[in-house]
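Batch manifest, entry 17 of 40.
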Amino acid sequence: MNSAAIAPSKQSKKQVNPQATTHKPTRLRIGMIGGVERSEGLFQQAAHAAGYDLEVHSGHTAGRGAQTLASLVNRVDLVVIVTDVNSHNAVVAARKAAVSRGVKHLLVRRCSPSRLIDLIHSVETDIAHAA
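Output type: structure tokens
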């Protein structure tokens, strides 16, 4: 047999799309504590339309409520705490969790979906620079 070298086949190299390899910026994750139990859908729609991920917590701290509140704070970039409808304990627990984890937080008396988006826009650049 002839032991001639076999020429490599002319296979086309896969073209790599540079846009496919770059990571898209992650959506800003917002946590909202209290004041959304009956209108959670409206807040979710407004946040999604503005390009944010929203997680909500009722503000109830009895039972596992305090643990789920702290867990929410761990997953988000910004915590909005509604003070008018939350108990003093819920406000203190949410604020303490945010401060101890270095998560930006806002205390607001009341909040509507449009006001939530306005608040997020006002602090978004601060959060982006900190990340």
